[in-house]
Design a protein that fits this description.
It is a single chain. It is globular, with a radius of gyration of 24 Å. It is built from 10 helices and 2 strands; from the N terminus they run ααααββαααααα. α1 (about 20-50) packs parallel to α8 and α3 packs antiparallel against α4 (about 135-155). It has about 375 residues and is mainly α. Helix content is about 65%, strand content about 0%. The protein has one domain (about 15-290): Rhodopsin 7-helix transmembrane proteins (Rhopdopsin 7-helix transmembrane proteins), CATH 1.20.1070.
Length: about 375
C-alpha cells in the first residue's frame, strides 16, 4: 500500500463510496465500449475536414483527442472503483488521471464553444469574418485553449492527491470537506471554464435559430429539422455539464464540515459521472454540426454496399461521383443559406432486371 506521511492523511471524513462500486463501473465500461470507437471514427472525419482545409476539422480533431485522452484514463479509474476506492498506483499517475478527468470537461466545453461560433458565422454571416474561419486561425485558438487548461491543471501538481482515509484506503483526487485552495480553482472553473463559454455557445445557437427562421427559401420541415438538432445539441450539453457545475458551486459555498460532504457525496459524484457521457455525445454533436459528415458516411456506406453487391461483377466501377472534400468544405461559406444537414445519397447501383439488356442505374 505504500508509506503515507501524516501530511497525506485525510482524517476529516470517512464517506460511504458505494456509488463508486455500483454505478461508476457500468458507466465507465459503457463509455469505453461506445466512446472509443465512436471517437476514433470522429477523429478520422475530423482529419478529412482538416485535409480539405476546413477550419471546423481543427476543432473537431482537438475535441476528439481530448475525449480519447480521457477515455484512455478510464481503465485506471475502473480499477480504482472496483478495488473499493483504493488507488493502486503512485501519486503522479493519480494526478495525471485526475487532470485528464477534470480538464477534459473544460477543453471539451472550449472546443464545443468554438464549433458553435464557427457554425453561427457560417450560417448567419456567410460572407463576412472569413479571417476568423481559416485553418490557421482555428489552430491558434486551439493552442490557446490547450495552454489555458494545462496551466489550470498544473496547480494540482503542487498538492498531494493520493491521501489515506480512516479505512486505510488510498483515495485519489478526493478531499472532504473541500480545501481552501480548491475553492479558488473551482470558482475559476465555473466562471471561466463553464459560464462564459456556455453563454457564447447559447448565443451562437440562438443566432443560428434566428437565421433559419428568417430564411424564406427553406422549407418548413427543413427548418424544423435544423431546430430539433440545435435544441438537441444544447440539451445534451446541459445534461452533461450543468448538474456538475451547479453542485460544484454548492460545495464551494456550503461544504465546511464532514456532515455536509457526506450528504452531497452521492449526487455530486453522479453529476460527475454524467460528464463522462460527453465523450459519447461529442461524436453525435459532430454529426449535428458538420454538413460533410453525412456525405462521408454515405460514401463509406455506398462503398461497403457496393462491394457486397457488386464484387462478383468483373470490371465494375463506382457508379456514384465522389465530390471533392475541399470543394464541399469551402463552398459552404459562399452559400447564401448553408444547410446543417444533407440528404444521404441512394446506396449503390441498382441492377437491371434480367433480360432487359440494361447495365444498371447509377445512384
Amino acid at each position: 500500500m505504500g508509506n503515507i506521511t501524516v501530511d497525506n492523511l485525510s482524517s476529516n471524513c470517512t464517506i460511504d463510496h458505494t456509488i463508486h462500486q455500483t454505478l461508476a463501473p457500468v458507466i465507465y465500461v459503457l463509455v469505453l465500449v461506445v466512446g472509443f470507437p465512436a471517437n476514433c471514427l470522429s477523429l478520422y472525419y475530423g482529419y478529412l475536414q482538416v485535409k480539405a482545409k476546413n477550419e471546423l476539422g481543427v476543432y473537431l480533431c482537438n475535441l476528439t483527442v481530448a475525449d480519447l485522452l480521457y477515455i484512455c484514463s478510464l481503465p485506471f479509474w475502473l480499477q480504482y472503483v472496483l478495488q473499493h476506492d483504493d488507488w493502486p498506483h503512485g501519486d503522479l499517475s493519480c494526478k495525471i488521471c485526475g487532470i485528464l478527468l477534470y480538464e477534459n470537461i473544460y477543453i471539451s466545453v472550449g472546443f464545443l464553444c468554438c464549433i458553435s461560433i464557427d457554425r453561427y458565422l457560417a450560417v448567419a454571416h456567410p460572407f463576412r469574418f472569413h479571417q476568423f474561419r481559416t485553418v490557421k486561425a482555428a489552430a491558434g485558438v486551439s493552442v490557446v485553449i490547450w495552454v489555458k487548461e494545462l496551466l489550470a491543471g498544473a496547480v494540482f501538481f503542487r498538492n498531494s492527491e493520493v491521501v489515506e482515509d480512516k479505512d486505510r484506503h488510498r483515495v485519489c483526487f478526493e478531499h472532504y470537506p473541500i480545501e481552501a485552495w480548491q475553492r479558488k480553482i473551482n470558482y475559476y472553473r465555473f466562471s471561466v471554464g463553464f459560464l462564459f463559454p456556455i453563454c457564447l455557445l447559447f448565443f451562437s445557437y440562438w443566432g443560428i435559430l434566428r437565421a433559419v427562421q428568417r430564411s424564406h427559401g427553406t422549407q418548413k420541415n427543413r427548418k424544423d429539422q435544423i431546430q430539433r438538432l440545435v435544441l438537441s445539441t444544447m440539451i445534451i450539453f446541459l445534461a452533461c455539464f450543468l448538474p456538475y457545475h451547479v453542485l460544484l458551486v454548492v460545495r464551494n459555498l456550503w461544504e465546511v464540515n464532514c456532515e455536509f460532504a457526506k450528504g452531497i457525496f452521492n449526487i455530486y459524484h453522479f453529476s460527475l459521472l454524467l460528464t463522462s457521457f460527453n465523450c459519447v455525445a461529442d461524436p453525435v454533436l459532430y454529426c449535428f454540426v458538420s454538413e460533410n459528415t453525412h456525405k462521408d458516411l454515405a460514401r463509406l456506406r455506398n462503398s461497403c454496399f457496393g462491394f457486397l453487391t457488386c464484387s462478383g461483377k468483373t470490371g465494375s466501377k463506382e457508379s456514384y461521383p465522389l465530390s471533392s472534400p475541399e470543394a464541399s468544405g469551402k463552398n459552404e461559406a459562399r452559400r447564401e443559406e448553408p444547410e446543417l444537414l444533407t440528404k444521404l445519397r441512394p446506396p449503390c447501383p441498382v441492377a437491371s432486371p434480367p433480360g432487359t439488356g440494361g447495365t444498371g442505374q447509377e445512384c
